[in-house]
Every structure is written in structure tokens, then in C-alpha cells.
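Ops channel
N.P.: pipeline sanity check, posting one input/output pair.
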């Protein structure tokens, strides 16, 4: 392999590595945080949720508990993940119910 070709290969590999690193950093910084809802649920003080919403992306994209609180004084929390299966919703709700005792549990069960 001649020197010219080797330099080009090194440049391409370096570009791809830098691009991948920057893409990863920006993706993590700008992503909406899927999968974080359970981690944050563990950090909530006990018995602070009035309404627990469990479901797929339809739940966490369309239900805003902050609006409930500002308009009605009702606290809420959404445990949602993309294409969440009903059995997964059951176990997520069961896990949250270890520390929370909501008055209402709303299940969003959009069938894909």
C-alpha cells in the first residue's frame, strides 16, 4: 500500500471515529430520556402520586402531569416506554406500587 493511500485510510478512519463520538455525545444530550422514567420513579418521595399512567409512547407523549397539577392540584406520573407491552406495564406498575399508593392507575393499551 502506498503512502498516499495509507494517509487517506487513516483520515477516513479518524473522521468516522470523531463523527461517532460526537454523534453519541449529542444524541445522549438531546434525546428525551427514554427509559429514565423508572429510575426517576425510585427517587420520588413515598406516597406523592395521585394518578399513575402506564403505557406506551401514546401515554408519555400525550399526557402531561404538570398540566393536571397546575389545573386541578392532582399529582401524576407517567411510566411509559416505546411499544410497551401490557405485561410490561403490569410489572412496571407493580414496581411503582411498592413506594407509591395512587388513587387512580390509568393504563394506555394501544395495540400495535
Amino acid at each position: 500500500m502506498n503512502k498516499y493511500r495509507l494517509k487517506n485510510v487513516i483520515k477516513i478512519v479518524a473522521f468516522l471515529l470523531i463523527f461517532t463520538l460526537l454523534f453519541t455525545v449529542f444524541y445522549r444530550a438531546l434525546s428525551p430520556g427514554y427509559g429514565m422514567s423508572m429510575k426517576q420513579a425510585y427517587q420520588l418521595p413515598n406516597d406523592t402520586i395521585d394518578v399513575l399512567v402506564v403505557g406506551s409512547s401514546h401515554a408519555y407523549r400525550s399526557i402531561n402531569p404538570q398540566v393536571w397539577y397546575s389545573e386541578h392540584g392532582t399529582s401524576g406520573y407517567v411510566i411509559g416506554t416505546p411499544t410497551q407491552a401490557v405485561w410490561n406495564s403490569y410489572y412496571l406498575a407493580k414496581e411503582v406500587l411498592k413506594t407509591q399508593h395512587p388513587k387512580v392507575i390509568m393504563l394506555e393499551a394501544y395495540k400495535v
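N.P.: looks fine end to end. The first helix runs from residue 3 to 30.
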